[in-house]
Each structure stands twice: as structure tokens, then as C-alpha cells.
């Protein structure tokens, strides 16, 4: 498992990560979200919706991994979208992205 996915698991245990469309959208709109991660196998409409929201609210976005790996990293079944609500975790994951070839898109 990559370090990025391990860091996502740490963020969950620290209570600094939200999952699911509605909670992530709420985090983006309230500027609580510091970094959004979308599964590479998410539906095109989902990707567009979150890409547009993140761009509007100037929140970094990562598209990578698949829904199974994202889900298992946070201890839940298949997850398509996650948001980190802590800047420290967001910085830690952003730093790891540079070393990960499984990430397709970074904004």
C-alpha cells in the first residue's frame, strides 16, 4: 500500500477526513476541505462536478487509485470521493503524490 493511502487511514482515525458526495460537497462549500481525492474509476459526471467545485473554491484536487483501494485505506467499502479537513494531513499527502505513479491528475 502506498504511503498516501496509509496517510488517509491516519486521517480517518484522527477524525480529519470525510467521505461521500454530500459531506465532501458541504466541506468544499464551507471551505473546511483542504484537499479532495476522487477515485480514478469514478463516473465522469462525478469527476466533473468535483473538479468544477474544487476549482471554484480553490481547493486542491487529486484523481487517482480506484474506489476499492480508497475504501480499504479508510476502512470502509468502496469510496469514490474523500476530503481532508486538516491542512497538516493535506500537506503530507500532497508531498507523497509526487512519488506516486498511481495518481492521474493533480490540480
TrEMBL record:
Ribosomal protein eL8/eL30/eS12/Gadd45 domain mapped to chain residues: 3-90
Keywords: Ribonucleoprotein, Ribosomal protein
GO cellular component: ribosome
Annotated InterPro entries: Ribosomal_eL30-like_sf (IPR029064), Ribosomal_eL8/eL30/eS12/Gad45 (IPR004038)
rRNA-binding among keywords: no
Domain of life of the source: Bacteria
Name of the molecule in the record: Ribosomal protein YlxQ
Source species of the chain: Paenibacillus apis
Amino acid at each position: 500500500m502506498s504511503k498516501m493511502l496509509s496517510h488517509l487511514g491516519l486521517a480517518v482515525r484522527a477524525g480529519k477526513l470525510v467521505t461521500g458526495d454530500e459531506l465532501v460537497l458541504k466541506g468544499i462549500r464551507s471551505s473546511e476541505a483542504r484537499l479532495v481525492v476522487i477515485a480514478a474509476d469514478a463516473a465522469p459526471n462525478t469527476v466533473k462536478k468535483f473538479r468544477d467545485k474544487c476549482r471554484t473554491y480553490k481547493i486542491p484536487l487529486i484523481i487517482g487509485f480506484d474506489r476499492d483501494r480508497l475504501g480499504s485505506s479508510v476502512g470502509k467499502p468502496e469510496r469514490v470521493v474523500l476530503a481532508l479537513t486538516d491542512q497538516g494531513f493535506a500537506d503530507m499527502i500532497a508531498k507523497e503524490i509526487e512519488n506516486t505513479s498511481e495518481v492521474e491528475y493533480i490540480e
